[in-house]
Amino acid sequence: MASLRRKQTSAFWWACFALPNGTRRQRSTKERDRRRAQKIADAWEDAARRAITARQMQKVVTEMYRDIMGEGLPSSTVRGYFDAWLTRKRGETAATTLAFYEGKAGRFLAWLGERADGELVRIVQADVLAFRTSEAARVSAATVNHQIKFLRMVFAQARRDGLLAENPAEDVKTLKRIGHSSRRAFTIPELQRLLDGADAEWKSLILFGLYTGQRLGDLSRLTWQNVDLERSEIRLVTSKTGRQQIIWMAEPLRRHVESLPAGDDPKQPLHPRAFASVTKSGKVGTLSRQFYELMASVGMAEEKPHRAAKTDAPSRSGRREVSEISFHALRHTATSLLKNAGVSSAIVQDIIGHESAAISANYTHIDDAAKRGALAKLPDISRPAKSATEAEKPRRGERRKVRA
Fold first, then answer.
1. What average pLDDT score do residues 69-81 get?
2. Which of 40, 155, 242, 376 could share a disulfide with 29, CB 3.0–4.6 Å?
3. Rounded Cα–Cα distance for residues 159 and 144 (Å)
4. Dihedral, CA atoms, 196, 200, 203, 208, nearest 10 degrees?
């Protein structure tokens, strides 16, 4: 007969039972009532002794649950649960994030085929591994890894909802991104080349990207309501995390903002073309492509032929090459420059808006003066760099040394 034990770290009874090979197993019954916990432990040992199939085990557990609880075991189909999960997320995430989740859910359900209308408990780790292998032959490792992380999140919630005993994606590892160039920061000369080749609006977006460390979509949505010149601050709520950001304007950025044409309407966007693009589509894909074209125009990226003109171009579902630098690299640049200037990680994370388990907004409060001092350490790229010839010219009041 199976036995029960208590653990100091748990409020539940733990079942102790033997497997057919003699190995002893311990598992939480998730029950505080000893009588019901004993029934669960006995059923587990009986199932283990008979080495029944997963389907038979499911039947045993269902009957056991009905006997103990007086009602049927909660269950759901894969499709039903994914649809319910997405419905729940509609009030919790931004529209772009929800669209991302919907795409990942649709891909997994399509891969399952008829099994998508089967029971959620029938999905096991082997299914997730097979799905990972299938996707790896179709898309990039980065895309596969996003999919695995998405499945972990959904199945983890199903476990919390009491529909699964284990998360089948929890121990499925992500793929190594072989041959993939990791994202990097821009160098100062690269930033100056970009500014030289950019039109007025893109120059403005680049300066905002460097001196605030914020994402392209959030910067594109800025209006004059977000700017407080009196306090020299930019206030915004990030679309990805919903985090309130208050960012002090470094002197080069403040000079630039003061040079921008401002009307009487506080809802007027700072970057009209970018604002119209993200407002219409809800995405930054068009702006990202334009930024890539800007990099290509100054020799920092290879020009890409239009997709329709490429006979060997991958389909929309094919592997996608990821550039090592993009507008998002400005976040890397701001982070790197601040840390290289000796700014603490806590202050950098507060300015950039990175989420961290180690540094939480609930426990770490960064002094405004510290953030202002940190941003003041960023280099001024808004003014053209001196050429070698100019650098050799003597300053006013100095005489050029003449060789004897």
1. 71
2. 40
3. 23
4. 160
pLDDT, tens digit (0-9, with 9 covering 90-100), for 105-116: 999 999 999 999
Residue 31, both tokens: 């029950």
In the 3-class helix/strand/coil scheme, how is 310-353 assigned residue by residue? Answer: CCCCCCCCCCCCCCCCCCCHHHHHHHHHHHHCCCCHHHHHHHHC
- Give the model confidence (pLDDT) of 226-249 as tens digits: 999 999 999 999 887 788 888 989
Average pLDDT over residues 115-134: 92
Q: Is the pLDDT of residue 318 over 70?
A: no
**DSSP annotation of 384:** P
Burial level of 386, CB count in 10 A (0-12/13-18/19+)? exposed
Read off the pLDDT of residues 24-43 as tens digits, 9 standing for 90 and up: 778 888 888 988 888 888 88
Do 121 and 164 meet the contact criterion of CB atoms below 8 Å apart?
yes
Structure-block tokens of residue 374 = 């940190």
125, 168 Cβ separation under 8 angstroms: yes
CB 312, CB 169: distance < 8 Å: no
Torsions phi, psi for 248 (to 5 deg): -70, 140
CA angle in degrees (0–180, nearest 5) for 202-99-329: 35
Stated length of the chain = 404
Per DSSP, the residues of 182-193 read PP-PPPHHHHHH
Separation between Cα atoms, residue 267 and residue 247, nearest integer Å: 19
CA distance 152 to 173: 10
Q: How far apart are CA 240 and CA 236, in angstroms?
A: 12
The percent of residues above 70 in pLDDT, for the chain, comes to 76
Give the C-alpha separation, 258 to 53, whole Å: 72
Return the pLDDT at 308: 45
What is the C-alpha separation between 143 and 319, in angstroms, rounded? 9
More confident residue, 44 or 64: 44
Beta strands in 8-120 (DSSP E): 13-18, 24-28
Instruction: Select 78-160's CATH number: 3.40.190.10, 1.10.150.130, 3.40.50.1000, 3.30.930.10.
Output: 1.10.150.130
Determine if residue 179 is left, alpha or beta; phi over 0 gives left, psi from -120 to 50 gives alpha, anything else beta: left
CATH number of 188-305+324-375: 1.10.443.10
